[in-house]
Amino acid sequence: MKTGMTLGEKVRYLRKRLNLTQQELAGDDFTKSFISQIEKNEANPSLKSLYIIAERLNKPVSFFLDETMGVEDLESSPKIDQLNLMGQSFVRERNWTQAINCFEEALSLCSATDFQRRATCLYNLGGALWQSGSAAAAIGRLEEAAGEFQMAGDGTGLVNTYNLLGVIHAQRGQLGRSVEYLEQALELIDKLEATDVYLRLRILTNLGLGLCSLGRYEESMEQLHRALELSDENTDYYKFGDLQMALGYIHKLRGELEEALKATIKAANFFRAVGPPARLIDVYVNLAVIYRARSQPGDVEKGLDCLQEAEALAEEHGSDKNRANIHEEYGRLLAAAGDHRRAITAYEEALVHQGEPARRAKLHLALAAAHQGLGDREKATWHLGEASSALEEIPPGKGEKDLAELYSDLGLFYQELGDVEKANQYLARSVELYRSFR
Question: Are 86 and 102 in contact (CB under 8 A)?
Fold first, then answer.
């Protein structure tokens, strides 16, 4: 038996060991012919391609680049490693139960001092648990993995773990915790001598999106621009649409409407090409908001066109939240054009789909303004009362800044109607809330 193997021989050997066809290894990223050429040593994959192939074969890139490593090294892998390989195969098949069983068995065979293998088993197990829908259990296993990677001195493994923890916490809405893990991942990867540029791109993107969600816009912009630069250098467009949407949102908040428009149009082009359609619905609504804010001749019509596109997509791919956002923006565009009657119809349709108390309060305020625009003081006052009731439904300690702004808007509206007592009541509550978080 040879003691050294070519890159192609290693790919072929591991593929067969995992019972993968060339087409299965190729996936959506390559052709079957390309994998065949690699295995015959007729083609040399780029480093980016090799990263993808190595991940699917559950080996580090260094293994394929080390010509001194041969079949004996593969055959001598202990049962722990074989179980991890089997588990990864089940992960590719989305057979989460079997994958979890493999990783748990592999973990049970690890000695207490085999930090590297324990870390690998725990990381794989955490990922499979997360994919199966058990996010809380996944977090526990990944936190254990982080400790084992630290004991093993494996910086890259630790970075991967922190990044995955950041992603999972973000999906659970725990944005502060998510950003903490992603900041740790970025700090650590910056210290490593040899780093995976694709992992760095993912960390920068996830961190930038998390910071944006927390309202830390300047920090978010810095990380998102770093991610864009790395994306262009390596032609890797990880979460490119989400990244451009976030940039568009921040530019809009800063009043940089042309930049907001450019970024959001890029997001639309990306999601139009690769999906998913539900994200394209959000982009069209964002474009309508930007056109309304820019308010140049023809912008109302452009905004309405965007909402028609969003509405068509929402028929098949939309949620109640999408439909509420679409109709609310229809109302705001129509109100901006002075068409208060049609705006009222749109706002009322949005209320049918909107379940969030804060957003319902905003809709009632918009309805009050529209009725006031038609001179109907009685209906305007009724909607102010409904807005007040919706605000009372917001749980304590949730969204104080938005709540303070809504109380302020409510107070100013009552002031405009001449109800000084209620105006002072809501303005005082707004001031109290602002003081509580400053």
Answer: yes
Name residues of the chain where pLDDT drops below 50.
Answer: 1-3, 76
* C-alpha count within 13 angstroms, C-beta hemisphere, residue 401: 4
- As a whole number of angstroms, the distance between CA 12 and CA 26 comes to 12
Element counts in the chain: helices (H) and strands (E): 24, 0
> What homologous superfamily does CATH list for 355-438?
Tetratricopeptide repeat domain (1.25.40.10)
Q: Are 294 and 257 in contact (CB under 8 A)?
A: yes
d(CA 290, CA 284): 10
Widest distance between CA atoms in the chain? 93
d(Cα 36, Cα 26) in Å, to the nearest integer?
10
Which of 88, 109, 113, 112 has its CA nearest to residue 99? 88
> HSE on the CB side for 306, CA within 13 Å?
28
Which residue, among 180, 179, 185, has the nearest Cα to 163 in the 3D structure?
A: 185
DSSP 22: H
Q: Which residue has the tokens 């493994």?
A: 157
The pLDDT of residue 76 is 46
First-last CA distance in the chain: 71
DSSP string, 319-360: -HHHHHHHHHHHHHHHHHTT-HHHHHHHHHHHHHH---HHHH
Q: Which residues contact 329 (CB under 8 A, 6 or more apart)?
A: 285, 288, 289, 292, 303, 307
Determine the pLDDT at residue 352: 93
Provide the 10 A C-beta neighbour count for residue 431.
14
Give yes or no for a contact between 163 and 182, defined as CB atoms under 8 angstroms apart.
Answer: yes
Assigned token pair, 370? 């529209």
Mark residue 94 as left, alpha or beta (left: phi above 0; alpha: psi -120 to 50; beta: remaining).
left
3-state secondary structure of 381: helix
**438 contacts 408 by C-beta, under 8 angstroms:** no
pLDDT confidence of residue 237: 82
Q: How far apart, in whole angstroms, are the C-alpha atoms of residue 281 and residue 182?
A: 28
- Take residue 114 and report the two structure tokens written for it: 């085999």
* Confidence at residue 268, expressed as pLDDT on a 0 to 100 scale: 95
Give, as one character, the DSSP assignment of residue 194. S
Mention every residue, 6+ apart, whose C-beta is less than 8 A from residue 136: none
